Amino acid sequence: MTAIYLIGLREGLEITLVVSILVAFLVKSDRKPLLRLVWAGVALAAAISVGFAVLLQVGIARLSSTHQELFEAIASFVAVAFVTWMIFWMRRMARHMGRELRGRMESAIEVGPVAIASVAFLAVIREGLETSILFYAAAQGTADSAKPLIGISLGLLTAIVLGWLLYYSAVRINLSTFFTWTGALLVLVAAGIFKYGFHDLQESNVLGGLNNLAFDVTSSFPPTAWYAELLRGMVNFTPAPTVIETIAWLAYGIPVLVLFLWPARPHKPAPTPVTTAP
């Protein structure tokens, strides 16, 4: 539930930031009547995202056991691709997101109402669909079906509260630091999902080695212990992983975490050409 809460918090805060930027732009430019178009676009994106999440759950339940394992493996790899792209995109665009969104909205206002709603819809739907896929991938193997729903709900509610407080300037947090720390934690979550994808491939007999364990520390980490459950929820730690699972976790987690935390090179402006008088 901890990992799913983090997914809801991170994705939810991105959505609330996007919406708050669009709302603040219209309010400050004295265009409040256009807010209904923004909320219409947000509501449509939210409805499609929820419907997509339900479709995933209902559709997969009708597959055979082997096909379920195979689909869950594919969903895991897609989720890992989404979260990897998302954290690096956010690190690059966080400083310029507001200016970019305001520019898109200004252009949309010149086009018409559908364009205004589309800006809000497109800004939210990407995050919403990502959240649905990440939620499905992270919730795999959870015995209690209520915990993932509680985790994602609490994460989204926390994000909404933070977004509201930020909008009214009641609290100020360093968003760059926030996204750096949550991004690093999400890399570990993604590494666990990546590992789980390979486990599904082994269970569907696409890969062998299901009984070839890398290590077994079950005596130190009993499945019912709270610390074992916490590690399993955050980084998909299992006390008896296979060799392929362990290699997959390390092969993704270490290089991606290093690349994400590596300081970005400062942008150097192009040198001004020197002209000489004739």
From TrEMBL:
Keywords: Membrane, Transmembrane, Transmembrane helix. It is a multi-pass membrane protein. It comes from the Bacteria. The chain crosses the membrane at residues 6-27, 34-58, 70-90, 111-129, 149-171, 178-198, 243-262. GO terms for molecular function: ferrous iron transmembrane transporter activity. GO terms for cellular component: high-affinity iron permease complex. InterPro entries: FTR1/Fip1/EfeU (IPR004923). It is found in: Membrane. The keyword Cell membrane does not apply. Belongs to the oxidase-dependent Fe transporter (OFeT) (TC 9.A.10.1) family. NCBIfam families: EfeU (NF041756). This is Iron transporter. It comes from Actinoplanes awajinensis subsp. mycoplanecinus.
